[in-house]
Design brief:
It comes from Amycolatopsis coloradensis. The chain is α/β, with parallel strands linked by helices and 253 residues long. The protein has 2 domains: 122 residues, Nucleotidyltransferase, domain 5, CATH 3.30.420.40; 108 residues, ATPase, nucleotide binding domain (Nucleotidyltransferase, domain 5), CATH 3.30.420.40. It has 7 helices and 14 strands. The strands form 4 sheets. The chain has a 5-stranded mixed beta sheet. A 5-stranded mixed beta sheet has the order 10-9-8-13-14. A two-stranded antiparallel sheet has the order 5-6. A hairpin with a 3-residue loop joins strand 8 and strand 9. Helix 1 crosses helix 2 and helix 3 crosses helix 7. It starts with a strand and ends with a helix.
Length: 253
Amino acid sequence: MEATRGFGIDIGGSGIKGALVDLAEGQLIGDRIRIDTPKPSTPEAVADVVAEITGQAGWDGPVGVTLPAVVKKGVAHTAANIDRKWIGTDADALFAKRLGRGVDDIAMLNDADAAGMAEIRWGDPIARRGVTALLTFGTGIGSAVFQDGKLVPNTEFGHIEVDGFDAEKKAAASVKDNEELSYPEWAERVNRYLSVLENLIWPDLFIVGGGVSKKSHKWVPLLDIRTPVLVASLQNNAGIVGAAAAAAEGIEH
């Protein structure tokens, strides 16, 4: 029988969020649980938080977990905005042991890939045609690229060089807050980033997500690029939803 509920956890640079998910509708069931990302955000410290969130929810089934990292076959190969001790960590084994699950009950994904998978499945159908790039603006910038709805995993387009800088160091949502930029000032930086990216991959559609998508009316209309821009329909919950679906269906990259 196809699972109707799943559980996803989205690990970010500032917060770790988890929730039960209705897999038929692609929506959270009840409130999400959020705990600040520990400092330092070592694998063991983060695993403790993931166990706490899973325990609070009373969930004993498969768990999908996202990381702001390149993830291949359950192993983290980079560490963006989390402790560098993650590099080379078998995250599948770590979480399976900490949560008392089998390795097959843990699905590890890049955070933006998970969010993109959720948007492709439950968002605007237009995203399933042609080349779609989802970008999450948060502590950093995550990217997920799809060709006719099929994911190209582990793209790292938040780190392309724009005007001599790593893109996310200038255009992430955290930079807006840290430098106290107005929405128009920040939108100018996002616009510059998107214009460089669209000249590299020539997408048919951008989807913008992350926490700042809740205030999309303040900055998305200010963008002036040739590629159409949609706001993520699941906003900042997309990573949780995508992770839950991946765990229920045994998807991992």
